[in-house]
């Protein structure tokens, strides 16, 4: 890997495109390196993972609305939509929209956390939709997805968006555009323009994850994927983009992120150092990412597992006086009491809000000893009187050591957990901690192929017909051998009449 310095340049400097981050990203995408076998195997795992959570959410309101919008954009030989037969085709940007929303709805697919945070599996729907539409092979798809993950992870390692209240889809637009560029074997110049267009159109703000969190949280990555498909389409037709999109004096870094000259005392002469593979170097970033066993924000994963472990030492939940979660800055301020969001303590809050309340999540996990993507968020569950009492006894506090470990570049000590102190009314204090979730690569039960398959079967068992489930799992595990035009087989279909219909709109 090579670090690339990225900072703002005045227009009169005439920064050469070879010195621009977007050009370097495009160079990685255009580099025809072989995808290593562990990477290809993990890509298969993540396609299974995406399908599991998408099918499980397919009839929820947001995925239903997204699908209904896409149905108005049928295209012969186009991309497939989750739940519908693969023989039915749709325009790729709209299929990416529908499938991306279904994948994101339950907040239960893969994650990568560093300077910023992301769900790299969000790259798969737009790349797959284009691959299906243009008749690409399984190997083509693998190459494209490897690039999408690589660029996503590299940007997330270097450029913090949430510090400036920018939503993380601003890294997804460029990564998905780069992945599509690799898939299609496009020239560096074309990918360069597409990456810039994709970034320019996907800068949105973090109010989508603040206060009363709405269904837009599920739509946001699908929106970025849709815009990435459109950006590549325009670039293929010879259309240009705002340039330099990262380094220009009126660019994203200059006015939205940390690039103004008056921040040099904080950020130094080069505001960002972005790692990218050198020419000929394999794209392995997907191996740094991790999926979720539980349907909740990633910082909740270890704490859910910790709650399961601690509950065995508590005979009477009503005997709890207080619960203090000592954790990282991010956990405290995004999903903890440091967010100062009263909605995170409200039993009438939306599912999306409860999903971002570690106080609620820890209380329910402690009481139930289990977690379910629907039952654990049901209004009746959230409004249970004993749960509300326990929930309101939970607070979070930032701990400098957990913050340091959260940002560590050493995988062996990087942590997303916490130390929990449960004080009983008799003065007894129970203390335990967990650094990473059980399903994390360094956890007690790292996810491997068998776990992805089990997750798929458990989440879709009452939705898909057994024959369809078995068909999909057989096909996806044979991905490298799928020929051009066969990628529609990666689409699990529900029985006829099983898909919900949403409210009418424009499309």
From TrEMBL:
Residues 20-261 form the MmgE/PrpD N-terminal domain. It comes from the Bacteria. Residues 294-479 form the MmgE/PrpD C-terminal domain. InterPro entries: MmgE/PrpD_sf (IPR036148), MmgE/PrpD_sf_1 (IPR042183), MmgE/PrpD_sf_2 (IPR042188), MmgE_PrpD (IPR005656), MmgE_PrpD_C (IPR045337), MmgE_PrpD_N (IPR045336). Belongs to the PrpD family. This is MmgE/PrpD family protein. It comes from Roseomonas haemaphysalidis.
């Amino acid at each position: 890997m090579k670090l690339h310095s990225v900072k703002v340049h005045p227009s009169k400097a005439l920064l050469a495109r070879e010195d621009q981050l977007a050009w370097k990203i495009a160079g990685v995408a255009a580099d025809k390196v072989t995808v290593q076998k562990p990477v290809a195997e993990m890509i298969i795992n993540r396609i299974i993972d995406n399908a599991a959570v998408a099918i499980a959410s397919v009839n929820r309101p947001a995925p239903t609305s997204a699908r209904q919008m896409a149905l108005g954009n049928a295209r012969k030989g186009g991309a497939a939509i989750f739940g519908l037969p693969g023989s039915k085709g749709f325009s790729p940007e709209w299929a990416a929209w529908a499938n991306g929303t279904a994948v994101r709805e339950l907040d239960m697919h893969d994650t990568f956390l560093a300077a910023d945070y992301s769900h790299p599996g969000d790259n798969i729907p737009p790349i797959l939709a284009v691959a299906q539409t243009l008749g690409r092979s399984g190997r083509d798809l693998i190459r494209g997805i490897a690039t999408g993950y690589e660029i996503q992870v590299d940007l997330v390692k270097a450029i913090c968006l949430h510090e400036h209240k920018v939503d993380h889809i601003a890294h997804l637009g460029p990564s998905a555009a780069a992945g599509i560029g690799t898939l299609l074997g496009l020239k560096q110049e074309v990918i360069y323009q597409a990456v810039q267009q994709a970034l320019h159109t996907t800068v949105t703000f973090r109010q989508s994850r603040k206060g009363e969190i709405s269904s837009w949280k599920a739509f946001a990555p699908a929106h970025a994927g849709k815009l990435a498909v459109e950006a590549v389409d325009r670039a293929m037709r010879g259309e240009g983009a705002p340039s330099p999109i990262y380094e220009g004096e009126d660019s994203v870094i200059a006015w939205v992120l940390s690039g103004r000259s008056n921040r040099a005392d904080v950020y130094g002469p080069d505001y960002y150092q972005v790692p990218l593979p050198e020419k000929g170097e394999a794209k392995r970033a997907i191996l740094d990412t991790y999926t979720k066993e539980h349907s909740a924000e990633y910082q909740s994963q270890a704490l859910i597992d910790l709650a399961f472990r601690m509950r065995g030492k508590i005979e009477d939940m009503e005997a709890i006086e207080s619960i203090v979660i000592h954790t990282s800055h991010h956990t405290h301020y995004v999903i903890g009491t440091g967010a100062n969001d009263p909605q995170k303590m409200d039993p009438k809050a939306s599912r999306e809000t409860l999903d971002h309340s570690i106080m609620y999540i820890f209380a329910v996990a402690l009481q139930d000893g289990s977690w379910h993507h629907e039952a654990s968020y049901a209004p009746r569950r959230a409004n249970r009187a004993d749960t509300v009492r326990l929930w309101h006894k939970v607070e979070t506090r930032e701990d400098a050591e957990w913050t340091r470990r959260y940002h560590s570049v050493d995988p062996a000590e990087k942590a997303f957990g916490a130390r929990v102190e449960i004080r009983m009314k008799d003065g007894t204090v129970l203390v335990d901690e967990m650094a990473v979730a059980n399903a994390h690569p360094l956890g007690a039960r790292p996810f491997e192929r068998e776990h992805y398959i089990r997750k798929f079967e458990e989440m879709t068992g009452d939705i898909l017909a057994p024959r369809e489930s078995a068909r999909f799992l057989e096909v996806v595990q044979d991905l490298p051998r799928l020929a051009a035009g066969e990628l529609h087989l990666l689409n699990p279909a529900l029985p006829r009449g099983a898909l919900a219909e949403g409210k009418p709109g424009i499309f």
